[in-house]
């Protein structure tokens, strides 16, 4: 019986851990607006890089070629 509870707890931990990861690692409850700082083309996609105030990393948005990077994006 304790092993069954341990398995349930581990499964719940994995589900929560995966559900709180976004493309930038920012949890949905901590969503923030990023401001466009650069863009690049690679592998048939347009990559938009956003600075998120209060975070040391950039948010990245991948769009199909022919698209435009919006000046802001919510992460």
Automatic annotation (TrEMBL):
Domain of life: Bacteria
Taxonomic classification: Bacteria, Pseudomonadati, Pseudomonadota, Gammaproteobacteria, Pasteurellales
Name this protein carries in UniProt: Uncharacterized protein
